[in-house]
Amino acid sequence: MALTTERSGLVTTSKRLAGFIAAATASALFITGCSAGGGESDPSQAGTGGTPKTGGTVHMLQNADFSYLDPSRGFDGGVNAFYRLIYRGLTMQAAGDAKDPNAIVPDLAESLGEASEDGLTWTYTLKDDIFFDDGTPITSQAMKFGISRSWDPQVGIGSPYLRQVIDAPEGYQGPYVSGDLPTIETPDDKTIVFHLKKPFPDFDNVLAQPNAVPFPEGTGAGDEFIKDIIASGPYTLAEYTPGSSITLERNEFWDEATDDVRKAYPDNWEFEIGIDAATIDERMIAGQSDDKNAISGTVSAATLPRLQTPQLKDRAITADAFCTTYMSMNTTKAPFDDVNVRNAVNWAIDRSALVNASGGTQLADPAFSIIPPVVSSFKDFNLWETEGDKGDTEKAQELLDEAGLSDGFEFTLDIRSQPLMQGRAEAIQQALEPLGITVNLNVIDTSIYYETIGTPAQQNDAAITGWCPDWASSASTIIPPLFDGRNIFEKGNSNLAQINDPAINDRIDEITAMTDVDEAKTAWGDLDEQIMGLSPIAPLVFSKGIFLPGENIAGYYPSTNLTDLTIIGLKDPAKG
């Protein structure tokens, strides 16, 4: 995840901040966070045929660098997928080719957690023979230390769920500032016990988040993990040139007997960074040399007509939309502190133009809710229903008149420095121009985009981003991080609209406390509609993806949320 659907350079449409949580650039690989899909899928789902063989090097071509190597800082679809190669947690999302790739399964833990009768205590037992990349055993104390880093005000800007769910003392600021976290107990080297603020049945999902990973005690302070890592997964860092390349090599202390998900077929991974999107498409189509052994992000709209030859059709794979691309509006600043202004923007936006700017109907559908259709809580509604999804300037003008802004206004829109984002922003400019609304674009480098807009002191009036649910069983990882006014942070903030409405906050608490799963699912959908009535955001599109892996790639099941790199390999390692 997490922002979600358009958060990292690998994301094709957020994450996450996230969930902070991935939507689409032609060069990105995954969508948001920023991790799961909607229900069970057939393991024979579209994917590259054949079983990978051990050996060789898989290449990844991408436009932008990962947000962070440090999993306590990063939280978007692209980097979350990368983290699975180098880090392990107590639990994790199932393999991409599993019958239910969205299921949560044990990882470093022997089993999923054992909850107390009151739901406030969860206990896990670590497996035997698990080690860091220097041969140091992974203990419950290392697990606790790694997790407690998420409370550090500088380091812990990634996934928010640990901080929201675990009952840390008031004012706790992580191990470097505050020391021990007493609400996580380690009675012995293999047992770890978590004390929660209130019952949270999805706690196994929380521990599958990218920041719930172990580190040796005392490591990772400040910028230590900016250019280096301490791996617990099947690969470790061999070389990193920021903005240019990353090379991973095998972690000799990873034991496949302890890992039921990661297959780790390649000997090495090579990430080629900073490549123009059009160049990536050209290289993937040509498939020369090492590009036969490469994967990349979604194919750009301009390239789609070229995929009509039988050879390319056979290689192309489509992934359904999982994330929502949207424009946040800062409700704490004029003119977006007026609900009439925000609603006027939603009425005026031409979502058919946004679909076209996203590559057409093959790559996007218009969005009117924040919850995407793949999530079980989805409610099909449209509060701004217009003919052909083209917007209604007259209705928008009426609302601006009520707000005393008949002649329009001017605002600054933050966007990522990628062609797709530019196209979407221009579609919004064109839709609002007849109302006298001037949209000034503030283009931010992709590698720092989510950190920038997630810092309220740095964000402008509005931002285009996206969000992927972190698990698909409900909208509990969509509505609270994006719209709960108690979840507005100085850094790592995902409530970009900064809406703090007591009615929304109270309803979030009521739904979270529901024990009837079906009742809660329905309630989240109803709350989505209630929130959209206040227009803190403008939903734009649900982004789909078409991918073109190299002809020697096997085990590739692309996702617009979290492509599982750990099961990808080569059909013939001798060619790689």
From TrEMBL:
<dbReference type="Pfam" id="PF00496">
    <property type="entry name" value="SBP_bac_5"/>
</dbReference>
<dbReference type="InterPro" id="IPR000914">
    <property type="entry name" value="SBP_5_dom"/>
</dbReference>
<protein>
    <submittedName>
        <fullName>ABC transporter substrate-binding protein</fullName>
    </submittedName>
</protein>
<dbReference type="InterPro" id="IPR039424">
    <property type="entry name" value="SBP_5"/>
</dbReference>
<feature type="domain" description="Solute-binding protein family 5">
    <location>
        <begin position="104"/>
        <end position="480"/>
    </location>
</feature>
<dbReference type="InterPro" id="IPR030678">
    <property type="entry name" value="Peptide/Ni-bd"/>
</dbReference>
